[in-house]
Design brief:
This protein is of the alpha/beta class and 351 residues long. It has helices at residues 17-25, 37-50, 61-71, 86-89, 94-97, 115-119, 151-163, 175-182, 186-190, 216-228, 237-249, 254-269, 297-306, 329-350; strands at 5-6, 54-58, 78-82, 102-106, 132-138, 167-171, 195-199, 210-214, 285-289, 309-310, 312-313, 318-322. The chain has two domains: 12-250, 3-Layer(aba) Sandwich (Aspartate Aminotransferase, domain 2), CATH 3.40.640.10; 253-350, Alpha-Beta Complex (Aspartate Aminotransferase, domain 1), CATH 3.90.1150.
Length: 351
Amino acid sequence: MNAMIDLRSDTVTMPSEAMRNAMRDAEVGDDVYGEDPTMNRLEQRAAAIVGKEAALFVPTGTMGNTIGIKLNTRHGQEVICEERAHVFDWELSMMAWFAGCLARPVRAADGVLRWSAIRDAIRPDGPHCAGTGCISLENTHNMAGGAVSPLDVVEEICHEAHQRGLRVHMDGARVFNAACALGVEVSEVVKDVDTVMFCLSKGLGAPVGSMLAGTADAIHQGRLYRKRLGGGMRQAGVLAAAGLIALEQMPARLGQDHANARVLAHALEAIPGVAIDASTVQTNIVIFDISGTGMTPAEFSRRLKERGVRMNGVGATRMRAVTHCDVSRRDCEQAIEAIREVCAGVASARA
């Protein structure tokens, strides 16, 4: 049986042979004591790459965002985010449960929060409403189809926020994809934010882990929050070894994923029953509407799976395909053919 073509997410990537070898041979120690040399190298290297003073390894992006928001707020404040943000919709209300903060969602049609929209949502401290403590930016924006925030937009938000004593956290789960799309170093993308979380286990292909970066003082405090959340790890160098390879070797190939996503998007434009504007696809996420087929996302997914393709629905009428290092151009072409078959089958049944 042929292997399934898995476009559900870039979280499904498998560690490379180099990562597996590095994990096997990793020099390790007790990371809670700060004695794991491989983990120490990963955290130092991650901080250097993103241009921050320090970095902290966390098991998941959700934990990284939770700690980042906690570091940038006080209990009872509000956090401004885009209304489809991962920190709002997909992280089990951790900004409320752990940070004690209320999300203040703001709509951005293209997924890119701009200062003009944020400014009107800022609340001062007062006797009747909770003041704003932090702005959370998602770059790239998952549910907006991998949308990238332009550099000048992030710069303006950070400048205006800091002028008002507000901090900025970036959910940069796929920030290396953003840097690739913009043609700049990732440090340029995150230079003005106070904290940034990015995932090693998505497009960079590591099996486990994310990083949170910021000032040395913030990361010192963040290490204590990680322990409270159960994230203190012992011989974690076996994970850090794969993370180092992800950081050093994988960013350079992200452009291939973006090119494959564009091929997929342009082909989808020509399939009856499918609606997508391929010009909006910037990175490795392709979201398209299937309401014209009359199928639900669950039915569409089932029929694709019968043809060797895995893909998830997002919402009542949309599907999401995510390209990654384990999906080749040929895989994308086969997925396109499977989608054509599914849509043609529905059209034939209606005739």
